[in-house]
């Protein structure tokens, strides 16, 4: 411990903080490492944000974010008191860990999942129990039927991209009735069915979404939660004990407009899904094994090349992908689905890097 660290709290000294994906400086990079949307935000959202950059910025924003919450509620067939908004889904998740998960019991999360979940547990003094995925990297909901202080499942899962069907979530909710079940739907718009349809049936269900991915607003930091009014009231209590104004006027205006622009949303998500399927096919042709993804990324491994070495070789060509040096997936790369042109550039680079192996395989099979 450094001498100056003596001022740190005991909880902070042992905390392993989340490490975000690399954000390179300078031009010319192809960023396929942080699951950002490759297409611009809605033009309507940009226009609305520009319109509110005026003298009104001297005033605080609406602490209740009422207009935005009404828009979200209308789109999901809910009441406004069933919607909470925050500064990105990470903040919403943090509030859920703080206010809704029982700190005296372990919180159950998948062993291969969003690596922020154990960080939240460490920050708030919660026991985190990681439940192994099966051999095919799928969540087995029956494994979560054990004493717990809450269940947190990303759907689709990250970094695998594999989705749980709504029937499986319903099965879990029917049996796990005494603790909150958080479904983190950061990637739901790329091929999954939202559990929001189950909210009025299950008071223990909290669904969390973000505008960072499918709405191309990662830089705006807007996330929201859907659930029973009692759960939303708990999140609001945490927020108002921390920061009553998590979303500024620009974010409120941009988020509401982005949600209203359904045509832009449909166009960009369909383009990303089409590029994902094209990329999965091309990677398979190069010898990669890809997990079936319903997200805007692929988790892939090449049985004849080190994932860490491939990541570095791509970086030298100014193409960034993500490598997690952790058990079970250390030989995989998580590859964000970029624009079609970016996907083609990645495939070209990988074709060059893997050419010696491809050639050797062809000779061996001749």
Automatic annotation (TrEMBL):
Pathway: Amino-acid biosynthesis; L-histidine biosynthesis; L-histidine from 5-phospho-alpha-D-ribose 1-diphosphate: step 7/9
Annotated EC: 2.6.1.9
UniProt subunit comment: Homodimer.
GO terms assigned for molecular function: histidinol-phosphate transaminase activity
PTM sites of type N6-(pyridoxal phosphate)lysine: 213
Matching CDD domains: AAT_like
Family under the similarity heading: Belongs to the class-II pyridoxal-phosphate-dependent aminotransferase family. Histidinol-phosphate aminotransferase subfamily.
Keywords for the protein's UniProt record, in alphabetical order: Amino-acid biosynthesis, Aminotransferase, Histidine biosynthesis, Pyridoxal phosphate, Transferase
Reported cofactor(s): pyridoxal 5'-phosphate
Catalytic activity: L-histidinol phosphate + 2-oxoglutarate = 3-(imidazol-4-yl)-2-oxopropyl phosphate + L-glutamate
Alphabetical list of PANTHER family matching this protein: HISTIDINOL-PHOSPHATE AMINOTRANSFERASE, HISTIDINOL-PHOSPHATE AMINOTRANSFERASE 2
Descriptive protein name: Histidinol-phosphate aminotransferase
Domain Aminotransferase class I/classII large: 29-350
Origin species: Hydrogenophaga palleronii
InterPro entries: Aminotrans_II_pyridoxalP_BS (IPR001917), Aminotransferase_I/II_large (IPR004839), HisP_aminotrans (IPR005861), HistidinolP_aminotransfase (IPR050106), PyrdxlP-dep_Trfase (IPR015424), PyrdxlP-dep_Trfase_major (IPR015421), PyrdxlP-dep_Trfase_small (IPR015422)
Enzyme class, spelled out: transferase
């Amino acid at each position: 411990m450094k001498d100056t660290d003596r001022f740190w709290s005991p909880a902070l000294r042992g905390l392993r903080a989340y490490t975000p994906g690399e954000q390179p400086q300078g031009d010319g990079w192809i960023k396929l490492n942080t699951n950002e949307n490759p297409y611009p935000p809605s033009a309507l959202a940009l226009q609305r944000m520009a319109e509110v950059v005026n003298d009104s910025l001297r005033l605080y924003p609406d602490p209740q974010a009422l207009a935005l919450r009404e828009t979200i509620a209308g789109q999901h067939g809910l009441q406004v008191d069933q919607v909470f908004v925050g500064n990105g889904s990470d903040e919403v998740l943090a509030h859920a860990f703080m206010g809704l998960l029982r700190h005296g019991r372990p919180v159950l999360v998948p062993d291969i999942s969003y690596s922020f979940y154990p960080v939240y547990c460490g920050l708030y003094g919660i026991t985190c129990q990681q439940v192994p995925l099966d051999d095919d990297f799928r969540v087995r909901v029956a494994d979560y039927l054990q004493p717990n202080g809450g269940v947190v499942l990303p759907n689709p899962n990250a970094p695998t991209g594999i989705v749980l069907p709504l029937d499986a979530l319903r099965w879990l909710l029917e049996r796990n009735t005494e603790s909150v079940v958080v479904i983190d739907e950061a990637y739901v718009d790329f091929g999954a069915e939202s559990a929001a349809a189950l909210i009025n049936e299950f008071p223990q269900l909290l669904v969390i979404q973000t505008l960072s991915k499918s709405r191309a607003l990662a830089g705006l930091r807007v996330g929201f939660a859907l659930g029973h009014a009692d759960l939303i009231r708990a999140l609001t209590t945490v927020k108002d004990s921390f920061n009553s104004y998590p979303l500024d006027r620009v974010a409120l205006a941009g988020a509401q407009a982005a949600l209203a622009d359904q045509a832009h949303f449909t166009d960009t998500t369909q383009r990303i899904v089409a590029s994902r399927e094209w990329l999965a096919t091309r990677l398979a042709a190069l010898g990669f094994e890809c997990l079936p993804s319903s997200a805007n990324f692929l988790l892939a491994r090449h049985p004849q090349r080190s994932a860490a070495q491939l990541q570095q070789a791509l970086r030298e060509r100014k193409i960034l992908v993500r490598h997690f040096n952790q058990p079970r997936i250390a030989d995989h790369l998580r590859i964000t689905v970029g624009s079609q042109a970016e996907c083609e550039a990645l495939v070209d680079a990988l074709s060059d890097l893997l050419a010696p192996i491809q050639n050797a395989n062809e000779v061996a099979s001749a």
